[in-house]
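Design job #97: recover the sequence.
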């Protein structure tokens, strides 16, 4: 399966699918069918080619290419999903946008049986890649904001604790000064008491 360069199928586009069957002997019949519904009325079938002009959401579904020879059958599926037209209207042109997809079906021949390699291809592959790229960009932005906020918080907390630490040491120094004054007062008081006792003994 070769996907179109633009990656997406949108309303108003044209889709062309080409089924190439390979086998021994060469498949003699190659047809397109719609698995989950009838083929759209505006679809054009021409041998291995399927052409759908002016796509719309009613064309969503699974389209199957079937090939057969005298040994057996093989098939390959293409899941079509039509997206909304772009929000910005491009300038009018004289050409029509065509989405072209080539599907290759392999029929391998053995002596008694045919081995097939069915594949399922999804037109949404391009859209899923775009969504993943956007998601990664959003996640990266959120992580950067969170890291920046944590750094700011750490700086603020560091300054806060630094201020309180300085205040603690100031109070501790003040307490030491007060303690020295109290000791001096006690010593003075004891000295005064001894002096009074000495005077009392002198008079006796």
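Job complete. Output follows.
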């Amino acid at each position: 399966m070769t996907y179109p360069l633009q990656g997406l199928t949108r309303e108003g586009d044209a889709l062309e699918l080409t089924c190439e069957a390979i086998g021994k002997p060469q498949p003699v019949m190659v047809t397109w069918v719609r698995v989950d519904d009838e083929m759209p009325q505006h679809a054009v079938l021409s041998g291995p080619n399927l052409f759908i002009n002016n796509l719309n959401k009613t064309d969503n579904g699974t389209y199957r290419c079937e090939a057969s020879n005298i040994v057996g059958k093989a098939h390959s599926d293409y899941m079509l999903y039509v997206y909304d037209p772009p929000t910005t209207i491009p300038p009018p042109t004289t050409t029509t946008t065509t989405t072209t997809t080539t599907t290759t079906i392999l029929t391998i021949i053995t002596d008694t049986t045919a081995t097939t390699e069915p594949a399922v291809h999804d037109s949404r592959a391009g859209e899923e890649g775009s969504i993943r790229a956007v998601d990664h960009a959003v996640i990266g932005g959120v992580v950067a904001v969170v890291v920046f906020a944590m750094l700011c918080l750490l700086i603020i907390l560091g300054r806060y604790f630094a201020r309180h630490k300085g205040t603690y040491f100031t109070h501790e120094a003040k307490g030491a000064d007060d303690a020295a004054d109290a000791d001096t007062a006690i010593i003075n008081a004891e000295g005064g008491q001894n002096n009074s006792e000495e005077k009392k003994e002198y008079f006796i």
